[in-house]
Amino acid sequence: MEKSPCVMASGCCACGMSRRQFLAGCAAGMAAVGSLSTMAFGESPAAGGGKAKVRLVFTHTPSTGPIWPNIGYDFDRRKKQLTEGLARSCPNIEFVPVTAMSGDQARKLVEGDKDIDGYLVYMVGIWTGAPEVIGAAGKPTVFVDDLYGGSGEFLIANAAARRAGQKVVGVSTSRFEDVVHAARCFEILKQPGKSADDFLAACNAARKKCFGAPGDLRCASDSLKAGDMGKCLERLRASKILVVGSDPGATGKSIQDVFGTPVVPIDFKTLDEAYEKADRGKAAEVAARWTREAEKVIEPSREEIEKCAAMYIAMSALLEREKAQAIAINCLGGFYSGQMKAYPCLGFCQFNNDGGVGACEADLRSTITMLAMTYLTGRPGYISDPVIDTSKNQIIYAHCVAPTKVFGPAGSSNPYHIRSHSEDRKGASMRSLMPIGYLTSTLTVDTNKKEIIFHQGKSVENIDQDMACRTKLAAEVKGDIDKLLTEWDRWSWHRVTFYGDLKAPVQELGKAIGFKVVEEA
Questions:
Q1: Among 289, 282, 288, which residue's Cα sits nearest to residue 302?
Q2: Buried b (16+ CB within 10 A) or exposed e, 177-204
Q3: 330 by DSSP, 3-state: which?
Q4: Is the dihedral of CA 6, 11, 16, 17 positive or negative?
Q5: In the list 69, 110, 155, 506, which could disulfide-bond 467, CB 3.0-4.6 Å?
Q6: What count of Cα atoms within 13 Å lies in the side-chain half-sphere of residue 275?
Q7: Domain locations in the chain?
Q8: What is the CATH number of domain 30-209?
Q9: How far apart are CA 340 and CA 233, in angstroms?
């Protein structure tokens, strides 16, 4: 679910237009906001020249279509909770609330705001383009991610604002009082002799003071032995990637240039023909196995799971016909447009468990990352839309596809639930309850930049929350979580997570192909 409002052409995989341009977000921390009236905050800075007038801008798109966390999400209720909570907790600030659903709306707002001291941009949804417009206006601004709502746009817009030296401070936390501590810094603007720079310094200090302290980063024993790099590169040269419903573009060409791996486009019609020919008896058997092995099936009907199994059989047929080892599909575009009759999520999970690669959203950067590291380590990768919670020193990897054999095809299986797809409450997807206490390595190989981005964390929780994507693996960040907020404008949203210490193999891969390794935490 990714799109860069700052680099519009990059999309989720830097290879074409985004597949989720019309998706928007949700909110997190409902229980915390529900108890705002009883929360205690520290002493407020003394105001010197009356109340600061702060434009409270909520950004989201309509909930009439597929969005985070789900179609029909009640943004009005959430905005009312947050407005009342801020007003109650910041009595020396006059908040002037408004909603911006596009960059044009934000531009008109900024042009008319002559007496506003600053902006608090609460991203309760994504891909409006409004935050970057407000950040560029030059007034003291706080960007806030309402977790699992504005996360993608927050990460990208905040990183871009920091890189551009704008007067913007970013807050990404599940704890509402952290937002309050940052918001109260607007009072400084009314104190004699204080400037926007004083606000920024105080706000950044308040933000960092709320960061969660690192916990015990000792991890469970996990003996990962990487394979031979020469054999890995040889396998990549002998492999093929199929991409359905999307032009491979420059990324497809650069993947072939770097690794010798051709990327072959397939249209939706070809996939649909294979789907119609899929053996329904075999699909019923596959669906029965998936259902039997699941810890629980929540929303999808047996019929829906069988449709997904037929899609798996169709994808398998295309891979066999083309003698390919990986498939990436513009799944959201295909399903929402009616060109696909079932989601591929469960089939992707099966491919990844079996040592192949199934990649969502036609994300070719993630696809080649998964293929290369699977060949090198024997383990599957997990594409996600990350969310950062500084209050817990955590990054949460959220998506609706994840493997259940994180240690490879011969390893143990972890439990899973079969759920509907989160944004539209349709189809069938996977919530994988991945192992806790293990070191994870997260990376993306970019054949256009000739760089590999990399960070690590300790898996600590499978978050159970009916917001955003179904699988939410939380990892405590190994390193500097503030630094982890800085690269998203260059790299967009997706990352790929693997179990195990892949630092040495990643560095070896970078050396072998002449790529720079960027450690983002």
A1: 288
A2: bbbbbbbbbbbbbbbeebebeebbebbe
A3: coil
A4: negative
A5: 69
A6: 19
A7: 30-209, 229-519
A8: 3.40.50.2300
A9: 34
State the amino acid at position 439 in one-letter form: L
The CATH topology of domain 229-519 is L-fucose Isomerase; Chain A, domain 3 (3.20.14)
Residue 19: pLDDT band (50, 70, 90) is: very low
* Amino acid found at 66: P
**Could you tell me which of 497, 501, 453, 439 has the C-alpha nearest to residue 471?**
497
Pairing assessment for the beta strands 394-399 and 471-478 based on DSSP bridges: antiparallel
H runs (alpha helix) in 90-124: 103-112
Low-confidence winner among 29-38, 118-127, 336-345 (lowest mean pLDDT): 29-38
Closest of 425, 459, 433 to residue 296, by C-alpha: 433
Q: Please list, residue by residue across 392-425, b when 16 or more beta carbons sit within 10 angstroms of its beta carbon and e when fewer do.
A: bbbbbbbbbbbbbbbbbeebeebebbbbbbbbbe
DSSP 125: S
| Vertex 282 angle, CA 281 and 286, to 5° | 120
Question: What helix, strand, coil percent values describe the chain, rounded to 5?
Answer: 40, 20, 40
d(CA 383, CA 329): 13
Count CB-CB contacts under 10 A for residue 34: 12
Would you state the structure tokens that stand for residue 288, as one six-digit string?
Answer: 């029965």
Distance between CA atoms of residues 250 and 266, nearest Å:
16
Return the ∠ at Cα 281 (arms to 280 and 285), rounded to 5°. 110
The DSSP bridge partners found for residue 474 are 396, 461
- Lowest-pLDDT choice from 23-32, 202-211, 283-292: 23-32
Tokens, residue 108:
């008109």
DSSP-assigned letters across all residues of 248-291 = -HHHHHHHHHHH---EEEE-HHHHHHHHHHS-HHHHHHHHHHHH
- Tell me which DSSP letter residue 438 carries: -
Measured distance between the N- and C-terminal CA atoms of the chain, rounded to whole angstroms? 22
Tokens of 165: 């030296």
The pLDDT tens digits for 446-463 are: 999 999 999 999 999 999
Mean pLDDT computed over 55-73: 89
- How big is the chain by its Cα radius of gyration, in Å? 23
Task: Give residues with Cβ within 8 angstroms of 220, minimum separation 6.
Answer: 435, 437, 438
Q: Which residues of 101-111 are buried (b: 16+ CB within 10 A; e: fewer)?
A: bebebbbebbe
